[in-house]
Amino acid sequence: MKHITISEVGPRDGLQSVETTLSTEAKLAWIEAEYAAGVREIEVGSFVSPKLLPQMADTEAVVRGAQHLEGLIIAVLVPNVRGCESALRAGAHKISVPLSLSETHSLKNVRRTHAQMLDEIRSCLKLVEAMPESEKPVFEVGLSTAFGCTLEGVVPESFVVEMAERVLDLGVAEVGLSDTTGMGNPAQLERLLTGIWQRCGESRLTGVHLHNTRGQGLANALRAVELGITTLDSSLGGLGGCPFAPGASGNIVTEDLVFMLQSMGYPTGIDLEALLVVRQQVAELLPEEEWFGFTAAAGLPKHFGAATLQ
Ligand code: ZN
What we know:
This protein has one domain: TIM Barrel (Alpha-Beta Barrel). The chain is 42% helix and 13% strand. The protein contains 12 helices and 8 strands. It has an 8-stranded parallel beta barrel with strand order 1-2-3-4-5-6-7-8, surrounded by 8 helices. The chain is globular, with a radius of gyration of 18 Å. The termini are close together. The structure holds zinc ion (ZN). Zinc ion binds next to loops. The site of zinc ion has 6 residues, from loops.
């Protein structure tokens, strides 16, 4: 079975949607603990205006602080060229720019039209390309609201494929698909993936960011893996609640995702028992937050351990 990379997004996606601002030390302790449990890709923060998101004001320090973890892919999110400059300066390994396929959502979220966002992506790309080869990060555009938008409703699938192609034609290495609103279903996911793969090639889309807002997270993740996706985003305890659906988790719960994949024989390199301990430690840092996930509540079955740890 092929190895699946779990990209932990809790320190970014999770923390940017909660009230509490964790200290740099606490964030690094979280990142180091997940690393020790075997996680090898972590989105550690976003380079946005600290006025908008004070929780992310120390992203540069977090990126630098995580550099000593050998083999860890340090991913960050940047909404614009300024963020991209900071990400490059800090030495991030993977830079992702979100492009909302719903223009209404894009205007509301980053105050930019699609044309303006494409310009921004072009400028980021220039900066990335100017880097020396050994320091060049992976540059990716995350196609958000790809499965539907709370403001616009349906996002036409043909448009998703068309925008993926336009973005890739700019010279971006990869696009990712994001079910920002948790509206996606496995059949739709299959149509979008195969549509983009047929048009642009399978190597240009290898990761998805799925949400569990309507309970479809693991069903979608499973379909994605069966079809050939090799990187899945998720967050510890499903942190990063969904602002428009209180009580529902936004992100897929990392612990449950690891349980599913390893039970099926997909290696993730993660020690789930250790990860459940990290969950407890991080939960203590964020006592106000709701923690999701069934595996932590039910515990690991007796036979789950050495045999499934791959
Ligand atoms: Zn998310």
